Predict the structure.
Amino acid sequence: MTPPSSIFIARKPSARRAVDPDVRALLREYLDDLHQGTDTVVLEELGLCQGDVRVDVASVNGELSGYEIKSPSDTLARFPNQCRIYSKVVDRAWLVATEKTLAKAAAPDWWGLIAVFDAGDRLGLRVVRAAQLNPKPDAISIAKLLWRDEALECLRNAGRARGVMTKSRKVIWKRLIECVELEDLRAAVRDALKRRPEMIELCGRKSG
C-alpha cells in the first residue's frame, strides 16, 4: 500500500530523544492511520524462523510487512542477520531509524526506509524509500511461521494431509512446501496470523 503522505508527525508531544518505545509507539500510530478502515492487523515481536529473529512491528493484510526499528542508541551489529532472516519471510521489509543510521545500514534495494526525526516537541516519520516486493522469499522459512495445527489445516485444505497427521512439525512443513504453491502458503500464513486471538489481544489490534 502506498503511504498517504511521506511525512507523519506524532499527535502528542514527546521527549526529544528518540528511544525505542517512543519510535515504536509512533510507528504504531502511523500504521493505524495508514490502514484505517481496513482489516489490517498490527503485531509486535513476531518471531521468524522459530524465534531466530523477531520483527519489531508487523502489519498483516494482503501482505506481510515487517518493520525493524533502530533507535539512536542501537548499534547495527545484529542488522545483517536480521536483514537476512526478514528477507526470507516478509513480503515487504522496512528499516525505521534516523537518517544517519539508514545511511550506515546499507539495506537491500527492495527494503523501504523510514527516517525518524525531531519535529519541535514531537517525533516525526518520513518515508525515504518505498518498500518493494521481496524478490526471493524462502518457502520453508515462511512455512515455519505456522503452528503445527495451522500447518495441518493448510494441508487438509489442499487435500494432502494424509500420512503426516501424527508427524513432527518439520515433516509437516516439508510436505507443505512440496504440495502447496508459494502464494497459497503465504496467504495461509497471513490468515493464520490474523486468527491468533491471543497474539492480537496482546500485541496488535485492527485499525479503524
About this structure: The CA atoms of residues 139 and 181 lie 9 Å apart. The longest strand covers residues 41-48. Confidence is low (pLDDT under 50) at residues 199-208. Residues 20-34 form the longest helix (15 residues).
